[in-house]
């Protein structure tokens, strides 16, 4: 026999799940539209318009950044976190490329690293922290832009080490800190030379054939 209360709870949960997914979709859709209309507004921010004392403000909070190169460490603070790959849009890619480029170009001394440790710190509002993935963020786009800006020569294993960490924040504004520093690879020679336990046995069988 069905419990009337459970039926109501089941219906409430089902409707809330639908609402949650729809809201998430529209959040990302709004974000995409936000960048689209910002780019549209930027078209009117030119000398021709300004000669008529017509100022166009297309700035967003996400456009703000802090950058410093001190004691051999490049540190960039961006007031956002990279989107997850499954909802990453072209607008997101362009936005983050611009942010990294503007941050690097704002420095009087341009940092260069032959072998770099790139460390990402994500600060996510507490309400979203429990579901905030760390490992599937749009990291590659950021690293590629560091290559484009000549901060690092390329993003191969020979030149780059990557670490990630996330933190819950009571502040409602998400943030990303990107730290780049030099490092010396220290491979474990014992691991490097280790072979699978049965590799010799398989080689012997091949030799017999």
From TrEMBL:
Region (Disordered): 182-209
Protein name as annotated: Uncharacterized protein
């Amino acid at each position: 026999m069905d419990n009337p209360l459970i039926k109501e709870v089941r219906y409430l949960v089902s409707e809330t799940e639908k609402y949650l997914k729809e809201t998430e979709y529209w959040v990302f859709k709004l974000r995409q539209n936000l960048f689209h209309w910002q780019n549209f507004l930027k078209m009117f921010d030119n000398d021709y318009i300004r000669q008529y004392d017509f100022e166009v403000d297309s700035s967003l909070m996400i456009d703000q950044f802090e950058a410093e190169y001190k004691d051999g460490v490049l540190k960039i603070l961006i007031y956002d976190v990279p989107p997850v790959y499954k909802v990453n849009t072209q607008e997101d890619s362009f936005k983050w490329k611009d942010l990294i480029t503007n941050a690097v170009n704002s420095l009087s001394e341009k940092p260069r690293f032959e072998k770099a440790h790139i460390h990402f710190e994500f600060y996510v509002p507490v309400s979203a922290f429990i579901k905030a993935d760390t490992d599937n963020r749009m990291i590659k786009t950021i690293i590629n832009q560091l290559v484009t800006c000549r901060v690092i020569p390329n993003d191969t294993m020979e030149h780059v080490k990557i670490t990630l960490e996330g933190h819950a924040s009571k502040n409602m504004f998400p943030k990303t800190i990107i730290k780049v520093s030099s490092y010396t690879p220290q491979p474990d020679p014992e691991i490097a030379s280790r072979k699978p336990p049965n590799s010799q046995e398989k080689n012997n069988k091949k030799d017999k054939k």
